[in-house]
Amino acid sequence: MASSLCFLVLYFLLLSLYVTQISRAEEDIVEEGILYIDGFSSIAKIDEDFICATLDWWPPSKCDYGTCSWGNASLLNLDLSNKVFFNAIRVFSPLTIRLGGTLQDRLIYQTKHDKQPCTPFLRDDTELLKFTQGCLPLSRWDELSEFFKKTGAKVTFGLNTLNGKKIASDGRTALGDWDSSNAASLIRYTVSRNYTIHGWELGNELNGNGIGPAISADQYAYDVTALHKLVQDIYKEKDVVPLILAPGGIFDAIWFPKFINKASNSLQVVTHHIYSVGGGNDPNLVQKILEPSHLDEESKYLQNLQGVLRNSGTSAVAWVGESGGVYNSGRNLVSNSFVSSFWYLDQIGMSATFDTKKYCRQTLVGGNYGLLNTTNFHPNPDYYGALLWHRLMGRNVLSTQFQGMKKLRSYAHCSKSSEGIALMLINMHGSTTVNISLSVTLANTNESPMLLQVTNDQNPRHGIEREEYHLTAKDGDLHSQTVLLNGKERNVDHFGRIPLLKPIRVNPSDPISIAPLSIVFVHIPTIQVPACSMSTREYM
């Protein structure tokens, strides 16, 4: 009996040691990988101010799945005196901000001679888009315009496309020409006050795949042509004429080509929206965010839109005009937490490779998917990723191919601050560290390739250290709203100032180590390739 008991004790002791060793082995998994970068020529070129964010009109009564997450984030009541909010915009110098959203097509603009009261949006399920018509007071437009001027923001404004239209008996189709009179009044007032607008956008998700009425491609093109003529006339004595943007909708392979072919002479920017992760009530959001095959699905839409633009012969370029990942206002502790950075940063990297010029995040503040906290405006984790991208990733996009673990995503650009390169590396694996070596092609691949093996290279030019920015979640909690940069918390100070984002400096001969569930930006000034030479940047 005693011997049997001893045997059982010994058995469980050995089993415990075995399980412990297995667990440690799983925690300590390290894989090697090689990142191949084509440095001979760039594959795309983004705008200098690629990072963009949105501000919306939703009032506090906007609720989804029983949660009301907008607070006082509407453009009609947003606290413009908040120092954190001001600094969060100002630090980008500039940040492009898109003003718009669903309710822009229920918004009228006060005029100087209005006798009717200018009332806010009110919830009413019997009304179109479930809200009454709202109104933008001229005094509020003055406040917003002065605020954007002080912060240095570049603003696009979404106009009400449904003005003058009637909804057909099917309850879906919007018929008739756009009535531009109210918009013309706002645009003229804006010019008279010398407020700078980067672009005027017509409509929000009215191309058939949105949540509200639908306008045919032919009619939409006609309305955009009317907007173009109106803006050209009002700005005829100005040196700079704002861009015309449209349609601000989910990409449709039939509707978009028809629209672009008809409106190509009046349109400078084709805007489309992306909500690729799922709805705010989806129980599988985190799994989708961390699954590369799911994230890859959006690439076909980005690629198809570029094909449409090329085939049309238009000079118009593509913007992602709105993308929040999780539709219907996002989800608390998912789309406003660290885990959100995996889809967000991956999607901006992917969008850039398809020649997208700007990428607008829904939202800057508001809902559960803001770059900033809706209550106190403190940055959520995605904000810091966006700011690092803005500072490090230059205009020229380089082709990359990673040989190694499937859950490692990689993007390379010419550096924004040197003639070197900048990388964004995303490790979506929960337990594997990846050590990356670089192999950079310097010559046309049609000729004999010249490869620069970066790691363990004895070239004396590599004495200059590279800069790394490692982003991780506080306490390893993917739902944390606090981000660590190189192991240190990033928080605003008591003056409301955005914290400094300092890199660690690493010997360039060391591999780049990407911890599990982390995101790393890398600036390598010593890797200078033909695609990133000053002459190439200038003429691309």
From TrEMBL:
| Top-rank taxon, per record | Eukaryota
User: From what organism does this protein derive?
Assistant: Solanum verrucosum
Pfam families for the chain = Glyco_hydro_79n (PF03662)
Molecular functions per Gene Ontology: beta-glucuronidase activity
Q: Which UniProt keywords apply?
A: Glycoprotein, Hydrolase, Lysosome, Membrane, Secreted, Signal
Q: Which family does it belong to?
A: Belongs to the glycosyl hydrolase 79 family.
For this record, an example GO cellular component is: plant-type cell wall
> What is this protein's function per UniProt?
Endoglycosidase which is a cell surface and extracellular matrix-degrading enzyme. Cleaves heparan sulfate proteoglycans (HSPGs) into heparan sulfate side chains and core proteoglycans.
The record gives the membrane topology as: Peripheral membrane protein
Signal sequence bounds: 1-25
Q: What is this protein called?
A: Heparanase-like protein 3
**InterPro entries reported for this sequence:** GH (IPR017853), Glyco_hydro_79 (IPR005199)
What subcellular compartments does it reside in? Lysosome membrane; Secreted
Where it mainly occurs, coarsely classed, is membrane
